[in-house]
Amino acid sequence: MPDTPRVAIVTGAARGIGAATALRLAADGHAVAVVDLDEGACASTVDAITEAGGRALAVGADVSDEESVAVAVEAVATGLGAPTILVNNAGIIRDNLLFKMTTDDWDAVMGVHLRGAFLMSRAAQAHMTKEGFGRIVNLSSSSAQGNRGQANYSAAKAGLQGFTKTLAIELGRYGVTVNAVAPGFIQTDMTAATAERIGMPFEEFLKAAASATPVARVGQPDDIAHTISFLVSEGAGFVSGQVIYVAGGPLD
Length: 252
Ligand code: NAP
Hints:
Layout: E1 7-11, H1 16-27, E2 31-36, H2 43-51, E3 56-60, H3 66-79, E4 83-88, H4 103-131, E5 134-139, H5 151-171, E6 176-183, H6 189-198, H7 202-211, H8 221-231, E7 243-246
Parallel strand pairs: 1-2, 1-4, 2-3, 4-5, 5-6, 6-7
Helix pairs in contact: 1-2, 1-8, 3-4, 4-5
C-alpha cells in the first residue's frame, strides 16, 4: 500500500541533491515545498514536479534567519498543509586551511548548516508533534570524519550528527523519527566549486574521486534522494537517530 501523502519541506532544493530529493518525494506522492534562498531559483524544480503531475510550492527563505524560517514554515502550512517531512539539505562551503579561514567563513557555514537545521527543525516539529507523525532528515557528510581545508564544514557536519541523535531521543514519542544521511562525493555544483578552487578540471576531479571509491563511480543526487525516500517512508518508523553514509563504500 502506498504511504499516506504528506507535506514535505526540502531546503536548498533549487538544485543539486535538494532538487533531486524534492522530485523524488513528489514522485512518492507528497506535496513538496521547494525552499531556497531565491524564490525564483526554485522554479525549475517546482515546474518539473508539477509537469510530472505533483504538487509543489516555491518558497524563498534563508534557513539561517529566524524570521525568514518562521515566515517560510507558515507559508508552507497555509499553502500546502502541515509539514510533517523536513529535509535539512541547504548548504554552503567556505573552504580554506585553518590559518587562512576567516571568522566570517566559519560563521557562515555554521549559520546555514547548524543554525539552519536547528531553526527549521524547531519550527517544523510543532506541526509534526501535533500530527503525531514526522520525519526529519539532516544532510551530514563524509567530511564529518575530517577533511583538509574544511574545518568549518566538517565541524558543522559532525555537529549535525549529534543534533540528529538528540532530536531522535526527544521526538520519538511523538511519532517523529530523525536521521542523518552522510553523502560521500556527489556530482553537483558544490563539488564543481571545489574542483575550481583547487584548480583541477571537473572531469579530472570526478575521475580521481571515482577511482578512490569502492563502487568505482562518484555519487549522483538521485543516490541520496533514494536513501531519503526510504528514511521518510512510513515503514522506516523504527529507524531513528541513525547516520547513514551513502558513499559508495564503507564509512562509519
Ligand atoms: P548545492 O548544489 O550547492 O546546493 C545547495 C543549495 O542550498 C543551493 O541551491 C543554495 O542556494 C542553497 N542554500 C545555500 N544557503 C542557503 C540558505 N541560507 N537558505 C536556503 N538555501 C540555501 O549543494 P549540494 O551538493 O546539492 O549539497 C546539498 C547538501 O548535501 C548540503 O548540505 C551539502 O553540504 C551536503 N553534501 C553534499 C556533498 C556533495 O558531494 N555534493 C557531499 C556531502 C554532503 P544558492 O545557490 O543561492 O547558494
